[in-house]
Each structure stands twice: as structure tokens, then as C-alpha cells.
Specification:
Strand content: 25-35%
């Protein structure tokens, strides 16, 4: 059984995510430092994938859904994995588009069941994302603000990592929204299977900041796991060339 304290081996807290997102002041060292930071985030994401005792796995429509709810914490931990008939680098390009409008549309496509309002700002090789969410009609709405980073490993695996942030001045905390936190480094792992296909895994660990019933936790876990299904549905038909257009 995994409890909150035992997660420290791969936990990336909000403060840690901000530290890893701070670039060197030296232009000479900036590229190297950013690469090391992005590699560390990718390693934390892989550890999250392989360390949690995922259970209740269900395979439907080619997607494997898994979740884990620690009994001693308010975390939601969800995982979804599927095969996408696109090259790994094309999937990476779709998941981290150059234009903010495409990034906002991506989140609409992936989180159509939850997202009510979305904002995104790309900043070089990272981006900020803010989402206002409605978990249930009787609950106060939530918001999440996070950094997005990418990393390409030597073995061909690609990563799109997400860490909590409160550093975007455009979206300070609001009294009418509860700000949830990404507890562990979350995001996408893209593993090449062939020159034209890859496996796509999405992992998320959220502190929802308050008690929610188990049935709602299960529903939110499934919704998050199905992000990879929505990606396949929307982007696989476009083909690899569209990713780099």
C-alpha cells in the first residue's frame, strides 16, 4: 500500500516544479540547464508510471484505464494508455503545438468533459496552461495552473511533462474557484513501436483540495484516463504531416 510519504521518491511538488522550471541566468548555460531539468522531469514521470500499484485496469476501445486512490490522501491518480498510428515525434508535435490557439484546441479536445475555460501561453520550450473545470454541478468549480515541458530521450521515448505553478500573473488564484494541485510530475509518455506507430500513456496525480465521494473520484479517474482515447480520435486521422504544418 502506498501512502503519501512513500511517494517522495518520485514526487514533484509545486515548489519543486517551479525550481525545475527556472532557467539559468547565463545564456551560455541556459540550453544545457533546461535539458537537464526536462530530463529530470521525464525521469520522475517514468517512475510515477512504474512505481504506483495501478489497479482496476479496464481495457475498452483499445485503451487501458488504470487508477489508484490512496486511502490516506485526497489524491486522484489516473492512467490511460493506448496505441496511436502516428510516429512518436508527430504525437509530440501535436501535444506541444507552437501556436497557443492550437494548444487551447488540444485541451478542448482532450478534456471536453471537464474543461469550461482554457488559456495557454507558450514561452520558448515551455508553456503555461490554465483550466477552469467543473467536476459536478453541486461542487465549487476548480482551476489548475501548470507548466508544460518536453523531453526526447536517446532511446526515442518522448515526454510532455506537467508540474503545478502559480507564477502566471494573468491568472492569480480566484475566490470563486478552488485551485487544485498536480502532486507528482504528470503528463504524457510516448514510446515508439514502429516508424509509424507508438504507445501513448497519460498519467495524472491531482490533489483536488477537498473531500469528494468515491464514485466521483472513480469517474474523474476514468475521464482523465480517456485523454489518450480522445487524442487518438482527434489527431490520428489528421496524419503525421499535419503535426508539423
Amino acid at each position: 500500500r502506498v501512502h503519501g510519504g512513500e511517494h517522495s521518491m518520485f514526487c514533484c511538488s509545486q515548489a519543486e516544479g517551479q525550481r525545475l522550471s527556472t532557467h539559468s541566468n547565463s545564456d551560455k548555460d541556459k540550453g544545457k540547464t533546461s535539458q537537464i531539468q526536462n530530463q529530470q522531469l521525464a525521469e520522475q514521470l517514468e517512475t510515477f508510471d512504474t512505481t504506483i500499484p495501478w489497479k482496476n485496469a479496464v481495457t475498452e476501445d483499445g485503451t487501458t484505464l488504470s487508477w489508484y486512490h490512496p486511502e490516506t490522501s485526497p489524491f486522484i491518480m489516473a492512467r490511460g494508455s493506448t496505441v496511436v498510428n502516428l510516429p512518436a515525434k508527430a504525437v509530440l508535435a501535436f501535444l506541444f503545438p507552437k501556436k497557443d490557439a492550437a494548444g487551447i484546441q488540444l485541451i478542448k479536445n482532450l478534456y471536453s468533459d471537464l474543461a469550461r475555460e482554457i488559456d495557454r501561453k507558450r514561452n520558448g520550450e515551455t508553456s503555461y496552461v490554465w483550466i477552469r473545470m467543473n467536476y459536478a454541478p453541486w461542487m465549487q468549480e476548480r482551476e489548475v495552473l501548470y507548466f508544460v515541458h518536453t523531453y526526447e530521450a536517446e532511446n526515442g521515448n518522448c515526454f510532455v511533462t506537467m508540474t503545478s505553478s502559480d507564477k502566471w500573473d494573468k491568472h492569480p488564484p480566484r475566490s470563486d474557484l478552488v485551485r487544485v494541485e498536480i502532486v507528482h510530475t504528470s503528463g504524457f509518455i510516448i514510446r515508439p513501436l514502429s516508424p509509424t506507430s507508438c504507445s501513448l500513456t497519460f498519467l495524472i496525480s491531482l490533489d483536488v483540495k477537498g473531500w469528494i465521494p468515491r464514485w466521483l473520484a472513480n469517474r474523474l479517474s476514468e475521464t482523465n484516463g480517456r485523454v489518450v482515447t480522445h487524442f487518438r480520435k482527434h489527431y490520428e486521422p489528421l496524419g503525421a504531416d499535419a503535426a508539423f504544418a
